[in-house]
Amino acid sequence: MSQNRPAAFSSLRMGEVIREKVQDGVTGETRDMQYTQCKIVGNGSFGVVFQTKLSPSGEDAAIKRVLQDKRFKVRTKWRSWKGDC
Fold it and tell me: Where, in this chain's numbering, is ATP bound (predicted)?
């Protein structure tokens, strides 16, 4: 895994838009999300957190990819905040 990219995104070019369904970390609402990956800001035994920019708004957000048993789907949660990517 490179310093700035989770292994799951190793084939993506920086700045490439990622599209997926995510769950809001506060409300639990599921919605379609588009974002560009910026950098890993934390990782642990349960998953990886990385700082992103939402597309097309450019709003900063944190994406947490939760690692689960392969028999279950991977969950992604997001949270927006003010700050620089």
Answer: 64
pLDDT digits (tens), the chain, 85 positions:
344 444 555 555 666 888 888 787 788 888 888 888 678 898 887 788 888 888 888 888 888 887 766 665 556 666 666 555 5
Residues 6+ apart with CB under 8 A from 83: 51, 60
For each of the domains in the chain, give its residue range(s) and CATH number, in order of start. 7-80 (3.30.200)
- The annotation places the binding site for ATP at 64
pTM score of the predicted model: 0.54
